[in-house]
């Protein structure tokens, strides 16, 4: 259903999600991300690869939005979500609204965006509680 790795060279958390989920699946993803973030212990960027992740039911999409918000609160980095269809893109753009999150159709576009300096990445400034 999901796989999480951290690339220390690029400091990118890579999350791959697959399949059609039910609400009971989401807490395991949240736990896995939380464990990875405790290991990273610092700011990071993220790429979510969801090529084999069909449009999800609204209750699952809402739970995944909460996971995204929780993860983004723990970094000042950016997250790129890569989807496999225009319908997936529409759902992601509707649910994953955050000034440091962008939706892409290819890994190359996502990786290029994350490689940009933050000031060139077309992100909206937000206040942060991080010190």
Characterization of this structure:
This protein has helices at 26-40, 58-72, 86-95, 107-115; strands at 2-7, 12-18, 45-52, 79-83, 101-104. The chain contains 4 helices and 5 strands. With 131 residues, the protein is of the alpha/beta class. It has a single domain (2-118), classed as STAS domain (Transcription Regulator spoIIAA, 2-Layer Sandwich), CATH 3.30.750. Strands 1-2-3-4-5 form a 5-stranded mixed sheet, with helices on both faces.
What's the gist of this structure?
This protein has 4 helices and 5 strands; from the N terminus they run ββαβαβαβα.
pLDDT < 50 stretches = 125-131
Strand order of the largest sheet: 1-2-3-4-5
Mean pLDDT, all residues: 91
Number of helices: 4
Task: Give the structural class.
Answer: alpha/beta
Order of helices and strands: EEHEHEHEH
Organism: Sphingobium phenoxybenzoativorans
Protein name: STAS/SEC14 domain-containing protein
Fold blueprint:
Blueprint: E1 2-7, E2 12-18, H1 26-40, E3 45-52, H2 58-72, E4 79-83, H3 86-95, E5 101-104, H4 107-115
Parallel strand pairs: 2-3, 3-4, 4-5
Antiparallel strand pairs: 1-2
Helix pairs in contact: 1-2
List keywords for this structure.
131 residues, alpha/beta, five-stranded mixed sheet, 23% strand, disordered C terminus, STAS/SEC14 domain-containing protein
């Amino acid at each position: 259903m999901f796989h999480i790795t951290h690339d220390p060279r690029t400091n990118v958390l890579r999350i791959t999600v697959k399949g059609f989920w039910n609400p009971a699946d989401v807490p395991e993803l949240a736990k896995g991300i939380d464990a990875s973030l405790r290991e990273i212990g610092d700011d990071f960027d993220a790429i979510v690869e969801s090529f084999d992740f069909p449009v999800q039911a609204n209750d699952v999409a809402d739970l995944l939005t909460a996971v995204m918000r929780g993860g983004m609160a723990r970094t000042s980095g950016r997250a790129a979500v890569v989807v496999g269809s225009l319908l997936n893109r529409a759902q992601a753009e509707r649910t994953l609204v955050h000034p440091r999150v962008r939706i892409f159709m290819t890994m190359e576009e996502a990786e290029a965006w994350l490689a940009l300096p933050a000031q060139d990445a077309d992100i909206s400034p937000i206040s942060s509680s991080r010190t």
